[in-house]
Amino acid sequence: MYLVAEGLSAESQERVRVAINFYPARGWQNGNSGWAHRDAFALLPIVREYGTSRDGHEGGQWQRFSPARSTWVLDDIGARLFWEVPMTYNRKLATLILLVVAMCLTLMPTRAHAQCDATTIVGSYGYELSMFFAPSAPPRVGGFFPTSAFAPGAFAGRIVFATAPPSISGSRVGNVGGVPKTSTFTGSYSVNSDCTGTVNQVLSDGETREYEIAIVQGGAEIDFADTTSSPLQIVGGGVAKRAPATCDATTIAGSYGFGFNLFFTTPPIQPKVPLHLDAFEPDALAGRIVFDPGTATTPPSISGFRAGNTGGRPVSSTFIGTYSVNSDCTGTVSQVFPQTGIAQIREHEIAIVQGGAEIEFANTVTSPLQPGPIFQIVGSGVAKKQD
């Protein structure tokens, strides 16, 4: 960009109106000051009052001023800023020159928008989805399905994007309304140049899911939103993150902080069909989990602590358990709560992403340590490396 400063001569006590025009240019940077400013600028307005020197360029004083009022005008010419400045000098000004220094004006070129195509997301991702299903077709209220019509669901798994032509494959494990669900899938995807796109997912039971996707961080992550409208009404979304090329138990050795959002059935129950939201109470937990990869004679194990709130009641407990990791960076966590009043085992599907820095969780099955029914859990969470 280039700056054009237009100044007007004025007499004492006269108000001076000055227009500053900005025109686009590229590739210039102030190497002396090291200033680098993108898509913005800084202005240093300076007025010089000249004295009696013959050449008119000496003996004056530089004065900074703050505009009394400024107005932006955007038109076909460019962006123009008008400043209205009160001038109150004791003597007549021979010449008024307004010098505007554009300190950061186009010191860097405008960043180009991200460009994507099908190859941007080629590879393996671990992902987590949280959603609400309307298993039946209840009457709509004001054009929408009521909250009570939906059953909560959560999944974790692996999705692989390939090209020629763009296709997907993978697996997912989770829980819908208290009923465990496992499936593989295939399908297709498309990517627009603006890094949005679509995914068509065909599950192993024949059902189809449609998603809108947004590719972020240069393809390191993909945000999903379900757009499926038939045969199930589904509301929800999730995120997929790049998975390592291969994993084992040592990939996640160490300490992680985690957060979970879950739904618990109100009474102990083992449902045979998905339960709607009115059968659940909400739960949120945070805590710490430590993964120990074990040795040649001892299996990988976990230990940790969590605290939070279930249905308005504060809860806290410690846990122990085991875990397993597959070479494709999926796995399982078996979380054991031996305390009286809890006495349960919670199973989770996990997806390892970002080189092991993060683990996506989805609750799959809850079982009692003693025979009998137990309240079921639907939900998901994420654990992030602490060390």
Describe this structure as you would to a colleague.
With 387 residues, this protein is mostly beta strands. It is 0% helix and 55% strand. The protein folds into three domains: 2-102, no CATH class; 118-242, Quinohemoprotein amine dehydrogenase alpha subunit, domain 2 (Lipocalin, Beta Barrel), CATH 2.40.128.120; 249-385, Porin, CATH 2.40.160. The model is unreliable at 1-68 and 79-108 (pLDDT under 50). The protein starts with a strand and ends with a strand. It has an eight-stranded antiparallel beta barrel with strand order 8-9-10-11-12-13-14-15. The chain has an eight-stranded antiparallel β-barrel with strand order 16-17-18-19-20-21-22-23. A four-stranded antiparallel beta sheet has the order 1-2-6-5, with no helix packed on it.
Brief digest:
The chain is mainly beta. It is 0% helix and 55% strand.
Keywords:
Lipocalin; globular; Porin
Write the layout of secondary structure elements.
Blueprint: E1 2-6, E2 15-23, E3 43-49, E4 61-64, E5 69-74, E6 79-86, E7 96-102, E8 123-134, E9 151-162, E10 167-176, E11 179-191, E12 196-203, E13 208-216, E14 221-226, E15 233-242, E16 254-265, E17 280-292, E18 301-310, E19 313-325, E20 330-337, E21 344-353, E22 358-368, E23 377-385
Antiparallel strand pairs: 1-2, 2-6, 3-4, 3-7, 5-6, 8-9, 8-15, 9-10, 10-11, 11-12, 12-13, 13-14, 14-15, 16-17, 16-23, 17-18, 18-19, 19-20, 20-21, 21-22, 22-23
